[in-house]
Structure formats: C-alpha cells, structure tokens
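Thanks for the sequence, V.! I ran Metal-dependent hydrolase right away. Repeating your input here for the record:
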Amino acid sequence: MKKPGSVQARPATIDTPTPKDHQITPRDRRFGRDPEHQPGRWWLNDDPVATAFYNALSLTFPRGEAFFIESVKSFRDVTPEKLQKEIRAFVKQEIIHTREHVALNRRVEESGYDTSRIEKRITESLELTKGRPAIANLAATMILEHFTAIMAQQFIANPQHFANADKETADLWRWHALEEIEHKGVAYDTWLYATKDWSRWQRWKVKALMMLIITRNFWTNRYNDTLDLLAQDGISGFRTKMRLIRFLLFKPGVARKIIVPWIKFFLPGFHPWNEDDRHLIDLAESEFEAALPDGAQAI
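Predicted structure:
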C-alpha cells in the first residue's frame, strides 16, 4: 500500500474552490531603501507595543518563508500543470517577501535592537523540521499560510492596524498582505493533492491537531518575542503585558478579529477560497501597479 502523502505519479485533477480565473502576480517592490528614510525607532504611531509586535513578526519571515518554499516545492513536480504554475508564482512572491523583510529586519537592528535571541529561537525551531516527512512540513506550511492570509485580510480591510505608521513600512506590510491573500490557496491545494488518497477523517484529524499545536506556538512565541524587544526599551512588567494583551485582543485587536476565520479552518469542506476576498487585492492593487517589471505576466 502506498504510504500516505507519498506520490509516485501525477494525481488526477481535483476540483477546489480556487477561482479558475485567479491570477498570482509577483510584484517586485522595494521599501525603505532611500538613505534619507528615517522611520524612527517606534515607526507605528510612536507606539512601542505595536512596533515591537510587527518587528517580532517580521523577524520570523526570512527563515519561515524559506521553509514554506521548500515545503511546497517538494510536491510541485507531481501536481497538475495549473498548480505547478501557481507554485512557481508563489515561490517568486515569497522570495521577494523574504528580501524585503531582511531589509526591514536590518533597519530594526540599526535602530539598536538585539534580535539575536529571537533569531536563534526561530532557527532552532526550524531545525526540528529537518528529517521530518515532507507531508508534515507541507501541513505546517498550509496552516501558517492560513494564518498569514487571515491576518492579511485585516491589514488591508482595517486601516486602523497601520494608522499613523511610517508610510514606507506600512506600505511594505500592505503589499505583503495583498500577495498573501492572492496565493492563499496554493499550499492548501498542494496539501489536497498530496493527501488525495487519505480519508476525509484522516486529513481533518491531522490538520486540526497541527493547527492547535501551531496556534499555541505561534502566539506564545510572538508574545515572548514582543516582550523581548520591549524590554530593550526599558518597557517591562505586568502593565506592559497587559498593554500587549490589550493591543492583540481589543485595540486594534488583530488576534481577536481573526478568531472567526481561524475557527472556519476546522469546518468540514473548509478551503481558503470559500471566501472570495479578491476585492481586498483590488483595494490595495492600485498602489503597487507600478511595481510590475516591464513585460511581467500574471499567471
């Protein structure tokens, strides 16, 4: 019997809610490269808590997105042609995202923050994935891509998240968000193809368990990393923890506002494109249209 998740031949096409006419377009944007650009230490509304949270999140992206790329690429060559093209576009987008977050993280360090402890923890965490079955890493990627997509919806739909932020840095996050929405179904469709011989119960059981584990780790690590950066500003203690919880759950409350789409992940028949939110891509698109290189083609 074939081992679950292993694929020896290209699987049959499986219908998914991914829009048939949907296009994934890598946009080669660069942010904050002007030497005169000075975003300030607390670039988000002069708020140390909000700034620390997004800085901590940004620090996860270079290594995290490299992991996403390798996880999905492991299954690319045995998927149908359309999904192969989508995976290639996904990879291009993630490579550019990585480059821009490397630049943002460099600016965080230049602002005087020691990011070594956070980066060490991220590296050690990803080291644990080496030698793990490819299907397990794909499942983790599919789940984390859902996290980034539902947060991205908030970043574009709710201007409060980046109100009074440094424009270049806020534009980076909104550009990243629109592309996360754009490719939100790629890892999930790859997962569906890779597990096409699994029962629905087996697929749900694995993804539900991993979602619970990853959710706990994601928020625990973001919470601790944010407190690490705040402590370097001399901001610590019980009141600081309460400020961070208020930021996450109440105002602007990004963690609270993604609870419903997080719950939907567990429903039978879930798929990221059950909600067609391409209007959010269109909302942000006009700002970045000029970023397309000459001759670039959407696929």
